[in-house]
Amino acid sequence: MLRVHSKLYSHPTCMPVRRTASKKHADITEGALPAEELKQEFPPIALPIQPPFPPMEAKAVAELPEGENWAYEPKWDGFRCLAFRKGDEVLLQSKAGQPLGRYFPDLVAAIGKLPAKQFVLDGEIVILREGHLSFDDLLLRIHPAESRIRKLSKETPASYLVFDLLVDERGKSLVELPLSERREKLEELFGGFKTHASKKRLSVAPELKGAPDVSDGAPQIRLSPSVREFSTARQWLTELAASGFDGVVAKQLDCTYASGERSAMRKIKRIRTADCVVGGFRYASKGGEVGSLLLGLYDENGLLNHVGFSSSFATQERKKLKAILKPYMGGSGFTGHAPGGPSRWSTERSGEWERLEPKLVCEVRYDHFSGGRFRHGTKFLRWRPDKNPKSCTYEQLANDGGVADLESILAA
Questions:
Q1: Which of 28, 193, 329, 394 has a CA positioned 20 to 30 A from the CA of residue 45?
Q2: Where along the chain do the CATH 2.40.50.140 domains lie?
Q3: Is 75 labeled as catalytic in the residue annotation?
């Protein structure tokens, strides 16, 4: 029987969220908790790589590199995840080193049905809804009630898109091999999966009908495509926006697995986004609600610098924000450059601002970053409970100065 360690994966106390079928956007409360509240100890597993194991990361660039030594992959809009399996034991680890198995029992079961009995995979957890990737549905999984998670796993089952192999089915570590060899072994592994695959197709994801269901009728475990053609990568950037596609990643074929480093990967996004620490907030000029979130990034000395703000909230969201931020009020705030007074042109924000403990991470969209800050206000996109605040550094930023068929990219 597959072991999930439900006691070890008990959810910490957090604000429950509700989901309604009629809403168009995620509720501002969904995913509004710090990464440390999800972080718990992993049970031991008899593999050469033990969780938490820092995954390889990508450096943001303004243009994709081109050449024979680069491979290109889709950048999926989901949760980065390392999957560890040894016999009946399956562990899922987030990018920030958190256990994810409790929130994705459907994937734990699917991975446990694969014919290979031991391996470590690197990939992305996504949820597909009507042919598109839905990050909102991923955030709904971060919920304190196990019954709710089980219900969601049936309503909106997750998929795991795999792009790297760190330990093979014989239990041998591959992290010192170049990507070209790791990718070859990963494709061989998936070739074995397909020979054991169920002939059934998942009715919940008809847009993926072209690929075999390697998890024997459970939510899909898929091989994420990798190509050498620069023209294909460029095409992905321009034609796949409507599917929830997040961008393109370029990986050096001759590099080993650079755990926790940004040296062997480059990424370019369709839109410019950044993960920022919420170091404080300003009150609105009227009503006593939250007017704007004050955003920070860590520098090379470990100091949190104020780099901009986000005030793109509806009236009802501002009221909910106060309850979200209240537990963190009175914290250290920004340890580097701190916010000054409001702009003399501002009419919506007061000059006062509240310091917060730097625990919450949010993703924002921006148009330009220079001089150490966002040049204009940013657009709040979502909370990122899967990101460690310390990972929110300047390194993630690039050097600034149509309807797509998702099946076509998975079949590349």
A1: 193
A2: 273-396
A3: yes
Start and end residues for every CATH 3.30.470.30 domain found in the chain: 35-52+78-225
Two structure tokens written together for 279: 């170091």
Domain 35-52+78-225 CATH (choose: 3.90.740.10, 3.50.50.60, 3.30.470.30, 3.40.50.970): 3.30.470.30
Question: Domain spanning 273-396 has what CATH number?
Answer: 2.40.50.140
- What element of type H or E holds 135? helix 135-140
Distance, in Å, from the CA atom of 291 to the CA atom of 319, rounded to the nearest integer, reads: 10
Determine the longest span between alpha carbons in the chain, in angstroms. 67
pLDDT in tens, 341-378: 544 334 444 457 899 999 999 999 998 887 889 988 89
Q: What are phi and psi of 158, to 5 degrees?
A: -90, 160
CB atoms within 10 A of CB 167: 20
Q: How crowded is the C-beta side of 54, counted as CA atoms within 13 Å?
A: 10
Cα distance between residue 96 and residue 93, in whole Å: 8
Catalytic-labelled residue, pool 75, 95, 269, 387 = 75
309 Cβ partners below 8 Å, 6+ apart?
Answer: 282, 292, 293, 294, 295, 339, 374, 377, 378
State in Å, rounded, how far the first CA of the chain is from the last one. Answer: 36
- For residue 274, give Cα distances in angstroms to 33, 56, 107: 18, 18, 28
Cα dihedral 168, 171, 175, 181 sign:
negative
